Amino acid sequence: MCFKLTLIFFLAEILLSEVASAQQNDPILFTSLADGRRQVYIMSRDGERPKPLFDHSKFDERPSWAPDGTQIAFRSTPNDILDIFVIDRDGTNPVNLTNHPRSDTEPAWSPDGTKIAFASFRSGDWDIHVMNADGTNPVNLTNSPSSDRWPSWSPDGTKIAFKSQRDGNGEIYVMNADGTDPINMTTHPDEDSEVAWAPTGDHIAFISRREGAYEVFRMDSDGSNVINLTNYPGQDAEPDWSPDGSQVIFQSIRDDHNDWEIYLMASDGSNQHRLTRLPGGNTQPTWAPNGHVLTLIQPIVWGRLKAK
What is the pTM of this model? Predict the structure, then answer.
């Protein structure tokens, strides 16, 4: 009996250790030009072991994790037109969801995984659309003569934040998930863009040029308490939150390098440090959902792209 109890406790310690390790190493997807063309890469959250997720002859970028961690949406150019694809998390089974003669980009999964919001030029200007996760039933939510891009869902799935030019400059708007009641959250004369809603629901990250160069800012979800998080000489862009909301990952050109690199900081802007050192530029970081840890796989070579 004593031996069995010891074995049980030993196995429990191993399991808890693995879970803790997994939570500390939720992988990060990003876009890299390391091999001379834009490809989706994966790395651990400490920036170690970066590898291409798959090997494809076209340009692939803007990865977005499904909430359950089983799939990844991204933008690709199978026919020199931007389309949104999904692929299994191991880099297999790519499917073209949009397959449209006009460009589609910036996919963002709804929190329940049933829908994908995206920016599309199919109406003749950029609008926020939403479709089912299998690509069916695309609907134009903004239908505005101005440019609307960069959708980001609230954690409860009831609202979508996005960047709009409808006031003559880039502003961060929030609307209901059905496109109704859009509200300007920033109302600032300088350019605001690239929005990311925190998983805790209380904050929204975005980039702004209001203090000169583009920096990563944070505001409360009602638009109040705007704070410059990066506040550093250079250019910062593409913020995304860690699954628990305690950290923000972003891309930056700063210090002694002339290419975009990926940086990590605490949600209050402290402890900024560089993660990537691949040549050619590294951009568009996005975190895996909490608890969905992947083995950093060898690149998968695509076959022919499949349409829905």
Answer: 0.86
CA distance 129 to 135: 11
pLDDT of residue 241: 97
pLDDT in the model for residue 77:
87
Ranges of residues in the chain with a pLDDT under 50 are: 2-24, 291-308
Residue by residue, DSSP assigns the chain as -HHHHHHHHHHHHHHHHHHHHHHHT--EEEEE-TTSS-EEEEE-TTS-S-EESEE-SS-EEEEEE-TTSSEEEEEE-TTSS-EEEEEETTS---EES---SS-EEEEEE-TTSSEEEEEE-TTSS-EEEEEETTS-S-EES---SS-EEEEEE-TTSSEEEEEE-TTSS-EEEEEETTS-S-EES---SS-EEEEEE-TTSSEEEEEE-TTSS-EEEEEETTS-S-EES---SSEEEEEEE-TTSSEEEEEEE-TT-SS-EEEEEETTS-S-EE----TT-EEEEEEPPTT-----PPPEEP-S-EE-
Which structural domains are found in the chain, ordered by start?
Answer: 27-307 (2.120.10.30)
Give the Cα separation of 131 and 110 in Å (integer).
10
Q: Which two structure tokens, joined as six digits, stand for 201?
A: 């629901």
Q: Can you name the residues that pair with 84 across neighbouring β-strands?
A: 75
Give the CB-side neighbour count of residue 87, counting CA atoms within 13 A: 27
| pLDDT tens sequence across 22-63 | 334 569 999 999 988 889 999 998 898 899 987 766 678 999
